[in-house]
Amino acid sequence: MILSKAIAALGLLAAASHAAPAERARDIGVVIGVLPPGPLNSITDVDGVEVGHITIEEGKDIHTGVTAVLPHGGNVFRSRVPAGFVAFNAFGKFAGSTQVAELGEVETPILLTNTLNVSEAAAAAIEWTLGQPGNEAVRSVNAVVGETNDGELNDIRRRRVTIADARRAIEGAKGGKVEEGSVGAGTGTVAFGFKGGIGTASRRLPTAMGGWTLGVLVQSNYGGVLNIAGVPVGIKLGRHAFAGGRAPDTADGSVVVVIATDAPLSDRNLRRIAERAFIGIGRTGSSFSNGSGDYAIAFSTNAAVRREEGSAATARIDDLRNEQLSPLFQAVAEATEEAVINSLFAGKTVEGHRGRVERLPVERILPWLNASDQGAAQPTR
């Protein structure tokens, strides 16, 4: 990183209010990996992908919401995208995952919410799909909904998210900049003992590696020993899941990773990419504990692999060769790691249902990150 930029950012952060979110990691010189990001460093760098959030905060007890990821702006049921799904540690409720694994495709928006409102989010995806022009005869819909448990900051037993809330997340989805931190499905989440949330990042491969774009969106709500760009931040802060010789909480959260790419990939290779997302999660310090539901779903927006409903033509099985996948494996590992760090950098201190969760003290850890990165290689362009 550039030292002067980091020092300037440190001054700005120190002057900010205690609850104010920091800038994104890369904006203050924390560079993760060797591949360049897309223009927005976001999942929406993949052409056509849209994201919508509904954030619900009511007093101290309600901090929850819904995040919707649309593979494209059309009728997803009639123009399905190939997809791969991985349950790395399946302590969770990922609705629709068995059909995605069986058929290798997504036919609805992908929704994220809290553990006890999966049914409302699924109903919203079903209602929205049934209401799309051209779907008047549809009698089966595979709603895809991931979740993490936000019960520390949110009174989750009140099941505050409604079908209407989740539909508004879908209907409000758009391209462009994605809001991060305590927003949407990340409103009440906690990561590494600090305020987690929604984070996103992307990588655009150099032309010699295919020129493809890959983007990631995460809902961070898990624990472990926090590492940022290789720096053992959790150890330095003395705050991590094993501090004081205690075993981690038996219900210590989850993470959902949504991956989009414009590379023409089969569902088999998309599953392979989804597997590599957990390299990035591991680099942040997770050990994928017993109580963590760790899921990844990856899809391709490329027209060559789109599965058009009712088309007389047979599906085209265009796919990259296996040996062309390695740069995309690197891209998903880097983007996932950076998306998690962005979710933490965007966090804010929240007084919630079962206590107070502080934002990550970015102004305190930035000197450690700067010291570790002197002389580091710059990303490949």
Structure description:
- The N terminus is likely disordered.
- Helix 1 packs antiparallel against helix 8.
- The chain has 381 residues and is of the alpha+beta class.
- The chain is globular.
- It is built from 8 helices and 15 strands.
- Strands 3, 4, 9, 10, 11, 12 and 13 form a 7-stranded mixed beta sheet that branches.
Structure keywords:
381 residues, alpha+beta, L-amino peptidase D-ALA esterase/amidase, 7-stranded mixed β-sheet, 4-stranded mixed β-sheet, 8 helices, 15 strands, 25% helix, disordered N terminus
SS-based structural class?
A: alpha+beta
Cα distance spanning the termini? 16 Å
Sheet of most strands: 7 strands, mixed
Specify the CATH homologous superfamily.
L-amino peptidase D-ALA esterase/amidase
CATH architecture: 4-Layer Sandwich
Low-confidence spans: 1-21, 374-378
Rg:
20 Å
Mean pLDDT: 90
The first-level CATH class is given as Alpha Beta
Outline: globular
The SSE string, one letter per element, is HEEEHEEHEHEEEEHEHEEHEEH
Number of E-state strands: 15
Helices and strands, with pairings:
Elements: H1 3-15, E1 50-58, E2 62-70, E3 79-90, H2 97-103, E4 105-106, E5 110-114, H3 118-130, E6 144-148, H4 163-171, E7 190-191, E8 194-195, E9 197-204, E10 213-221, H5 233-237, E11 254-261, H6 267-283, E12 293-300, E13 307-308, H7 326-345, E14 350-352, E15 355-357, H8 362-372
Parallel strand pairs: 5-6, 11-12
Antiparallel strand pairs: 1-2, 2-5, 3-4, 3-12, 3-13, 7-8, 9-10, 10-11, 14-15
Helix pairs in contact: 1-8, 3-4, 6-7
